[in-house]
Amino acid sequence: MVELISLCLCLCRAEDSAMENIVTEKKAEESHRQDSADLLVFILLLTLTILTIWLFKHRRCRFLHETGLAMIYGLLVGVVLRYAIHVPSDMNNVTLSCNVNASPATLLVNVSGKFYEYTLKGEISGSEINDIQDNEMLRKVTFDPEVFFNILLPPIIFHAGYSLKRRHFFRNLGSILAYAFVGTVVSCFIIGLFMYGCVLLMKQIGHLGGDFFFTDCLFFGAIVSATDPVTVLAIFNELQVDADLYALLFGESVLNDAVALVLSSSIVAYQPEGDNTHTFEAMAMLKSFGIFLGVFSGSFALGGATGVVTALISFNFTKLRELPLLETALFFLMSWSTFLLAEACGFTGVVAVLFCGMTQAHYTFNNLSPESQDRTKQLFELLNFLAENFIFSYMGLTLFTFHNHVFNPIFIVGAFLAVFLGRAANIYPLSFLLNLSRRNKITSNFQHMMMFAGLRGAMTFALSIRDTATYARQMMFSTTLLVVFFTVWICGGGTTQMLSCQKIRVGVDTDLENFQSCLMMDFLCVRLQIGPDGVERSSTKQESAWLFRIWYNFDHNYLKPILTHSGPPLTATLPACCGPLARCLTSPQAYENEGQLKDSDSDLILNDGDISLTYGDITVSTDATGAHTSGTPVGGVAVNSDEALDRELAFSDHELVIRGTRLVLPMDDSEHPLPLDSRRHWHKNETMS
Amino acid sequence: MVELISLCLCLCRAEDSAMENIVTEKKAEESHRQDSADLLVFILLLTLTILTIWLFKHRRCRFLHETGLAMIYGLLVGVVLRYAIHVPSDMNNVTLSCNVNASPATLLVNVSGKFYEYTLKGEISGSEINDIQDNEMLRKVTFDPEVFFNILLPPIIFHAGYSLKRRHFFRNLGSILAYAFVGTVVSCFIIGLFMYGCVLLMKQIGHLGGDFFFTDCLFFGAIVSATDPVTVLAIFNELQVDADLYALLFGESVLNDAVALVLSSSIVAYQPEGDNTHTFEAMAMLKSFGIFLGVFSGSFALGGATGVVTALISFNFTKLRELPLLETALFFLMSWSTFLLAEACGFTGVVAVLFCGMTQAHYTFNNLSPESQDRTKQLFELLNFLAENFIFSYMGLTLFTFHNHVFNPIFIVGAFLAVFLGRAANIYPLSFLLNLSRRNKITSNFQHMMMFAGLRGAMTFALSIRDTATYARQMMFSTTLLVVFFTVWICGGGTTQMLSCQKIRVGVDTDLENFQSCLMMDFLCVRLQIGPDGVERSSTKQESAWLFRIWYNFDHNYLKPILTHSGPPLTATLPACCGPLARCLTSPQAYENEGQLKDSDSDLILNDGDISLTYGDITVSTDATGAHTSGTPVGGVAVNSDEALDRELAFSDHELVIRGTRLVLPMDDSEHPLPLDSRRHWHKNETMS
């Protein structure tokens, strides 16, 4: 495919080559200065946002979150740039025409005997050409949309995965997956269909200024189905809202970003053969579906794999713990390489980074030194904070600086209705179905809250600005901006009111609450089990997710010991025939840990093995510094098979009766006295979850 | 200056516009994948470097520092890219020619009716055009040189300023400034003159393939005069080498980076009028000198100003301390905006960032919450580490991937000689002159060590790769690479040997040592002072730098109270007439601190006020956690005027005799027992300096 075409037309000799050189250099310098000044505007905008956020936090204002604030500042700067500043049009664009078939990535231009290299920036529509000549300033503050996908989104998504409250996430995994996958697809199609109705109406009354196909409607459905966790969850965190509601909302919004991203690219990839490219065709549809599955599972596998590799490295290079700087740098680089690797393989980097973050938090985090744990958390927290506020202020800015807005009243009203309907079609039917099998039901006030909390944010914006070439995409972009503004300001600002209106409890100390409720349940279980037949107990057991139990056991018995220094030694969990292999894979630390199986992560699951452990370790003492020492289990090594579990439970229950369980722990930092009627005091174990 | 030129030559109708669109998209996607893969190579290179560094640190290998290692890995990858991988030339470059006078920044190309936007990347020389067509792969891994100045150098330089050991730096300020300013200029001219001799010789024997002017030689002198602190100082840190030697080397190499950068741009700016642009002209020379002064002082002032603004913000928004994330983000953004502001104003961002870092460390750091202090230090440590290793591995890579190397044996040998001579002409004469006025002389073994430790690193490389358009610049670049390789591997690797060869003490606990020696000196001072006339004492006093004493007093009495929460309240230091102003500017904390004037920074200077304080605070107890409590000074508030000092010293000496100074402190972490013959035990005060 060598297309080396030389179009040497006229070679003008330069009269004064030196002079010209200086002029070119001056121009390059000026352009660099201008770039610096533009970036400075954004930095100062962020600085201003931070100072105002501080003021808000100080005054405990909850009606406007930092992201909403960043948008307002962005809007203001946008207005100033648009209307107040008029830069004289310093137009140096040259329009060239040539008879090549495609636009090359690199262009060499022979100007007066000197060769200059140009790189392709993108296609511009005819209308844009005038705009370009209109206001150079506005174009300058416009970023390449790919910046969002390659620089700003990855830290946000990684941070979401890394900071997932895994215990509650895994407890609600089934529901979260249902909302994220089924819910997002349902929402996408509902919105797509509704919008197609709107488009047909607009076509009828002649309000449509260009093409708008059904695939465009579906694409719109996909991009506005991505909900943003930022604003609502910040308030939830502050108010300490119920952990299950938090987990459901957070898990859903993190995963549906990934689903919406892959879904939208699958819709774009829908390319039926033949003349009319916008008809329905089963094969193309299947292909799109295949792409969705392939890209999603590929990104998932890749993200998980890199996480596992990092865990293995940090597991084997244990001495690295002495050098937190190297450890942190390694962690950062490996996480970044996940993104790049996924992009290089044609998968979706953002999705890979999400699963990488989750794997890192689950395995690698346990291998890091305490200092590196802090450092990595703080680093990604900072990156997330900066990227997020940058995106939201840029969002405000684009409302005025973007030149090809298409605001169509019918489409906008339709979009708001569709977004509402799509969210309702996601939450209510799915909640009903999920409640059929859930032990702790998703109550109707939780459902209303989830409905209300479906804000649209960074991902929706990034997806809609990615391609604004056609009329349909421009209309989508303008409408999306309004949807984001509305949801962030109105829904985000009304979260506190909505919470009190729905009578959802706030100020819940989740760790304590959980420990306590789980204990009560276990206690009940144990009571039931010592009945004559044990039938009740097993029925209780079957209510919990069997699929998840299998995974948890596998993870706890095999993956954790291989990838981290916690968990039981493999020699104890693998069958006897695999003895040599197990010995080879087990680290010396695992044997040391054998007595203290309750690693920071084991409270992820609060049934089965942990019950036995909780009852097995009769004396657990936690000192003030967080280092916890536990007595060896009375029943020996806990093997998580059901028979062992039964024996274990019976044994420990016996113990319970004989010795009278006394778990007295220092109560230095628990502010909520337990309303337990027993005389025991439980102390929450501060863990990263 | 509207130069809108439309050269519409031929508008070819696209046969299949949709098909073509897909092709373009595919191509863009492929290019993105390629970019990701290239970046991935670098990331993996860094990961490999980190793992090997760990191995080296673990085995205590000191003959090769991480930067040297990064270069070796870079070299290996360069060899592989150059010789092992042969990508079939997928050439899509199109050469266009047009009769415009200058190359525009943006180019619109009309390809088959569609407009594509191209941005200027830079000029390419004729020889490069063939290279471009040679190997796309090699071009892909080549970064825009401006990346170094805008992304990689700023964190390195900022970190250098931020981590300066200020106490020892300020104690040796005069010498450091002499080495950095006078020394660098001397070295630049010596090297320039020597190289001009080489060039003349080469011209005589016909070894020169292009133009090479005297300004080019001076430019070469400027860029290779920038010494790099990284490698040597890492070893110094590990071995705990004498603090004064450390301060001299570190201070010099940090400041001479800034001097060399501004100097080289001043040399480039030397543009005599008239026909021959390479003759000597006094006016142009003066202009260059003016540019040097203007840019340097401008950057200095700007960097300092931003630092002060950040200090003021963090001073006034004290409640920000509750939110370390916001505090850290603010700190990061303000430091970055210094760089952008300087660039936007036409100053040198890197230099501004250096002084900003120093100001931040001096003032803002004291206002930050302890958590933010850790966070900012760790953040910049990480950024510095990544940027540095990236630059050094890229250096290794370019030896093979850069296509226009000009290796000229005479020039190379000449350059090595010139570098040696230049360094010698910097160190030895200056040390001799400085020793005339210094109290603690720079001994000859220190001088040899400084001579040996003049490694060339990141700044030299970045300056030489910035412009490789002409023959002279290409030859400089190739030679510079070799100089960097040689100094980093040979001089860097031989540091330990050189230290033991020069019999320079290692394993010195600098804080302890200092405290002790200062104490001995003060003791002497006090003894002398109680002689009948006090003449000896005042002569001792005059030996210390008077200029610096003035600055220190001003800083301690006025700047520190205004910008930080430490230091004495302004009401105590300002004259009585300024009472209202002082009260308005003094924070409530300052009054609280009044009794404990010994802030983390006051041991910066170990004479005057501190002596009185040391003797005034008879009982200083430091507990193991680092929080130190001190008794109120016996002599009341210490005002740093000379009369008060005298009174104070006399008083405390009296106290000394009467009460018998007993300073018994816990000795938990000092491994070096004091060889003091008195019965006192001193405990070093761990401070960030």
Automatic annotation (TrEMBL), chains A, B:
Gene for this chain: LOC107601126
Q: Which organism is it from?
A: Sinocyclocheilus grahami (Dianchi golden-line fish)
- Keywords tagged on the record: Antiport, Cell membrane, Endosome, Ion transport, Membrane, Sodium, Sodium transport, Transmembrane, Transmembrane helix, Transport
Residue ranges crossing the lipid bilayer per the database entry:
38-56, 68-85, 147-164, 176-202, 291-317, 329-358, 379-400, 406-425, 471-495
What biological-process terms (Gene Ontology) are attached? regulation of intracellular pH; sodium ion import across plasma membrane
Where it sits in the cell: the answer is:
Cell membrane; Recycling endosome membrane
**What GO CC annotations are associated with the protein?**
plasma membrane; recycling endosome membrane
Please give the family membership noted in the entry: Belongs to the monovalent cation:proton antiporter 1 (CPA1) transporter (TC 2.A.36) family.
InterPro entries listed in its UniProt record: Cation/H_exchanger_CPA1, Cation/H_exchanger_TM, NaH_exchanger, NHE-6/7/9
Q: List the protein's name.
A: Sodium/hydrogen exchanger
In Pfam terms, one family for this protein is Na_H_Exchanger
- Domain named Cation/H+ exchanger transmembrane is located at 49-500
One annotated GO molecular function is: sodium:proton antiporter activity
Q: Which PANTHER family match?
A: SODIUM/HYDROGEN EXCHANGER (PTHR10110), SODIUM_HYDROGEN EXCHANGER 6 (PTHR10110:SF94)
Q: Where is the composition biased (Basic and acidic residues)?
A: 669-689
**Gene3D superfamilies reported for this sequence:** 6.10.140.1330
Sequence segments annotated as region (Disordered)? 668-689
UniProt KW Transmembrane helix keyword: yes
Top-level division of the source organism's lineage: Eukaryota
Principal place where this protein is found? membrane
Q: How does it sit in the membrane?
A: Multi-pass membrane protein
